[in-house]
Every structure is written in structure tokens, then in C-alpha cells.
Amino acid sequence: MPTWGQLLTRLQELRQQGRTDAFDVIRREALLDLYNYTGRNVVLYAGGHLQKPRVPPELLTITNEDIEGFMEVFHVFPEPA
Questions:
Q1: What pTM does this model have?
Q2: Mean pLDDT of the chain
Q3: What are the extents of the domains in the chain?
Q4: 49-79: b or e for each residue (b if 16 or more CB lie within 10 Å)?
């Protein structure tokens, strides 16, 4: 796992290359690294905890109301016959 300084250096390199999606590139690299390390699928669930104005914490918590959305994402469809 890279250090904070290494992440900032990578971000600067990507921006110097004209990449407007530098944060997304780094995020995807980290997710791929985690997948390669564990050999398992990775799920990223992100909330708006850094948004301004501050979002009430109860709106950022995973609750029972989220179950259907997670079930939809993780549902395994049968292979076509």
C-alpha cells in the first residue's frame, strides 16, 4: 500500500500528463491492487461525508433500507441455457 506522499506524487504525475480523471485512476488502481492481493471481489461503498454543507451522519449510515440495493448488486443471474 502506498504512503500518503506516494499517492500525492502519483496524483501530480497524472495531472502533469493532463489526466483530468487522476483521482479515479488512483482509486481504480487501489481497487485492482486489493483484488489482486485478496483474490476476491471488492465492493466500494462511498458516502458524502466530505460534502459541504455537512451531511447528517444518519444519512451516511448503511441501514435496512439499503438491503434491496445491495441485493440487486450482488444478485447472481443464472447463466443462459
A1: 0.63
A2: 83
A3: 4-74
A4: eeeeeeeeeeeeeeeeeeeeeeeeeeeeeee
